[in-house]
Amino acid sequence: MDPALENLKDGVRRFHSNVFVRNAEMYARAAIDPQRPHTLFIACADSRVDPNELTQTGPGEVFVTRNIGNMVPAYGEMLGGVSAVIEFAVSSLNVHHIVICGHSDCGAMKALLQPESVEAMPTVKSWLTNARAALTVAETVHTRMELDRSLLSVLTEENVLLQLQHLKTHPSVAGAMAMGELSVSGWVYDIGTGRVCIAEDGQREFVPVTP
Questions:
Q1: Is residue 13 located within the same domain as residue 85?
Q2: Whole-number Å distance between alpha carbons of 131 and 111
Q3: 3-class secondary structure for the chain?
Q4: pLDDT tens string 94-142
């Protein structure tokens, strides 16, 4: 018996008995109606981050893609799953907004600060090059401005801002933004406090979402 699999099965049973039954009509509609998400949410693969729970959205509202470090390779550099998701979300699903969401205690950001930790993981090491410029900026800002915040915290924000720049190099995104059909924002989610801070397009400051 696989304990992990059994744990997942228990979750499925709770879903059916506690969630699905109460929302059967909603799921029935979702199974028939084409999805029309208003937002593409690019998040870290960290198991402590749940985009739908964080935004309190249901089936069909948010199109989600996740990867280590919530990264978006600049167009043409690493064409693959992330690029395909972005293109499909913008060109086919016609999402109106794209979020790039970083978070506290991010393992990818820690690996950037301690590159020796991923020496035995060549694929991860290569992937982290998508945030190399953010590390340079974070180290410069942290040193010159003598911030009382940790370098990890500054790097997390700078990485989100860098990935927003990369996002705008994708033709589908650039075209939709030029037509005023798409907007973007960068988020940082603090797992311990539940606080979300957002930098709207063109801003460097992350402003807390207040109750």
A1: no
A2: 11
A3: CCHHHHHHHHHHHHHHHHHHCCCHHHHHHHHHCCCCCCEEEEEECCCCCCHHHHHCCCCCCEEEEEECCCCCCCCCCCCCHHHHHHHHHHHCCCCCEEEEEEECCCHHHHHHHCHHHHCCCHHHHHHHHHHHHHHHHHHHHHHHCCCCCCHHHHHHHHHHHHHHHHHCCCHHHHHHHHCCCCEEEEEEECCCCCCEEEEECCCCCCEECCC
A4: 999 999 999 999 999 999 999 999 999 999 999 999 999 999 999 999 8
The per-residue pLDDT for range 57-67, each reduced to its tens digit, is 999 999 999 99
Q: What is the pTM of this model?
A: 0.93
Overall number of domains in the chain: 2
Give the range of the structural domain holding residue 183, as residue numbers without chain letter.
35-208
